[in-house]
Specification:
Blueprint (H helix, E strand, L loop, with lengths): L4 H4 L2 E3 L3 H20 L6 E8 H4 L6 H9 L9 H14 L1 E2 L7 E2 L6 E4 L9 E8 L5 E11 L2 E4 H6 L16 H11 L3 H12 L2 H24 L14 H11 L9 H18 L3 E3 L9 H12 L8 H18 L4 H4 L5 H15 L4 H13 L17 H21 L8 H14 L12 H4 L4
Parallel strand pairs: 2-5
Antiparallel strand pairs: 1-9, 2-6, 3-4, 6-7, 7-8
Amino acid sequence: MFLSVFDMFKVGVGPSSSHTMGPMVAGARFLDMLRAAPFKAHGVRASLHGSLAFTGVGHATDRATILGLAGFLPDSYDHDKAEAAMAQITADKQVTPEGLPALKFDPKTDLHFDFGPALEGHANGMILMATDAQGDVIAQETYYSIGGGFVLTEAELTSGADTDEGDPVPYPFKSAAEMLEMARISGKSIAQMKRANEIARGCEESLAKGTARLWEVMNGCIERGLVTDGILPGGLNVRRRAKGIHDALIAERGMNLTAPHTINDWMSVYAMAVNEENAAGGQVVTAPTNGAAGTLPAVLRYYLDHVPGAAPSHIEDFLLTAAAIGGLVKFNASISGAEAGCQAEVGSASAMAAAGLCAVMGGTPEQVENAAEIALEHHLGMTCDPVKGLVQVPCIERNGLAAIKAVSAASLALRGDGEHFVPLDAAIETMRQTGHDMHEKYKETSLGGLAVNVPNC
């Protein structure tokens, strides 16, 4: 099994990888289908189902779908161009993607939210349609946004196209047990095995440049969040807090007033900075999703800025180790909040961050696996209940607490010798089963939990 670090970590746009990035990618894929079609389309329509309908407006799914059908992509997203395009589409009632004629599309009538049962394949389903000059549907495709910006057609989901079918890699582990056994036999670290797999599918130079860019975008997101204040969009009137907390932490330095636990505030503020940027629709990196995008960058920034002996040369090892763990979770369970609750998003992020930190602090493969297990185990059962469908409450603070848990998990693992009672594979399988058994209202529908027990305005 192989899932590239650049699949697990994608540069994109907030507020949601599954609800914003996924529909945008689906729109782009549908345009590619129309470009290759033997017929001429005159218009397009979209129907959103399941979680994409229930929390679609709060997650900007409607906007992302429209922009996807206009030719926008998450990794090259330009906010100003998107704003101009949305205004033009609203006025002209058409989209003008490159390589196709102008296509009739009225956002008020051609984008439908279906609040009935979800489509069978996944909680995040959408149907895109092409119409002829009379408005009759002449082609359609069903897409599923399965978390982390990954998108599959109905046929791909049914056929298992989500599995890896590329060239063989030297360390094709599908479970944590296999990963540890390969590490023992080869004498390599998890990062070294992951690096060898990446190079087998690409090259060393592109890996180095790509991981450097990932951290550049992650850290840039932290920096923007630490200096920006104001009210987040969406109607909840949630005030950005990262800048105020960061300013206070800076002011307290050197005053001999800082309690030891203040380090938790540093971890939280890094994570909150990212997730406030995400909530505002800014550029983020899925880690493994947008809703959980702050946890891993916060732990990596904590390592670089606060851990004695930390070195930027270890960033790649951190990301590769984290990606290896994230790949195991995705392959054997889920990273989708709509499919398995927030345990699949922030729980996975915490496990990935714990593994990365443990690795760069000298942990053995067994200690790294233990760190990931500790972090994931203590997020099991966490629901996804965004208030008003916005990735704000409780999501922003939740990333900060997940970062603290990740650091604690790595520290505990490093205090041991790698032997522990619950294997990571068991924690991942438990998460899968828990997500399967979890009531739908607790899986990114905003129909349960905090979403119905606090005021929405």
